[in-house]
Amino acid sequence: MKTKEKQNIYKQAQRFAEITQSCLKNGNIQRAKHYMKIAGNLFTYGNKEVQNAITNVYLHSVSIFMEINHYNIGAFLPSNLQIEYYKQTNTSGI
Question: How many angstroms separate the CA atoms of 84 and 28, rounded?
Fold first, then answer.
């Protein structure tokens, strides 16, 4: 895959994270959960680049936002993203 295409995937994942965070900020919890479900599906069915973008950009960004704002991450993230979240937190030593 070309470098420009890779960057585009990561930029899209970041924008998707920003939209999800905006929904949470505005109290639109159901829409935020819907977007997280879509991210979970992309993680499950996407290729390696998509999976990496979801894990390293989307999940990282959204989970930090949720931690700062005291959201119950387990109540929002689909199970496959919860597993990745716990991998991230256990690996980083948090």
Answer: 24
**What count of other Cβ atoms lies within 10 Å of the Cβ of residue 14?**
15
- Helix (H) or strand (E) run with residue 61 in it: helix 60-68
Average pLDDT over residues 64-90: 92
Residue with tokens 């159901």: 30
- Could you give the C-alpha distances from 4 to 7, 45, 49, 58, in angstroms and in order? 5, 22, 13, 19
Residues in the chain: 94
Cα–Cα distances in angstroms (integers) from residue 82 to residues 8, 11, 36, 59, in the given order: 25, 22, 11, 9
Q: CB neighbours of 67 closer than 8 A, spacing ≥ 6?
A: 73
Output the pTM of the full model. 0.87
